[in-house]
Amino acid sequence: MQPAIVFRAAASRGYAVATWVVAAAVLAAFAVNGGAAEVLRYGALPLLLAALGWAAFWRPVVLVEPDGVRVVNVISTTWLPWAAITGTRTRWGLEITTHDRKVGAWALPARSAIGRWTRAKRDVPVVSSLHRLDSVEAGGADPDVVAGIVEEHRTGHLAGAAARPERHLEILPAGLLMTTAGLALVSLLL
């Protein structure tokens, strides 16, 4: 992984672990209550919950790199070079705009009223300069901090095809979610 400042919601990893614990408890309850037959019949439901926990809470991240911003969402990843970025918004969470689209960051939702109030009581996190960045470092969970970095480095003019945003559907999370959802649906219909 190249040097980057990593931003993600503060509680997202905790939510992922909580969904996995609940999924494991439900799977264990199926095993204790009905044995292997019940696990085979209904086991896809907690597997779907675990897959959702990973895709929705563990995976999403915003990586601010020396050459641009990588937004990893639930089933897609978008690369935004600095020259393609025209602005940012943080009303409902981090949203980065380009000439032809808006890219929302699942990893950085808007702060709650309590979160905004407590943020006002503490210092803004110190993040390294992108020019001196030589490793991966944590940047925190504040969409306003990311927006400030992006606004400072964006150029907003397209310098050719290399400066175009690139969005890719990620096969692993999309396939995992579709497979577990399909299995859960089949188990409920049988």
From TrEMBL:
This protein's source sits in the domain of life called Bacteria
What does the record give as the organism's lineage?
Answer: Bacteria, Bacillati, Actinomycetota, Actinomycetes, Micrococcales
Keywords, alphabetical: Membrane, Transmembrane, Transmembrane helix
Bilayer-spanning residue ranges: 12-32, 39-57
| Name of protein | PH domain-containing protein
Alphabetized Pfam families for the sequence: bPH_6
The Low molecular weight protein antigen 6 PH domain is annotated at 59-103
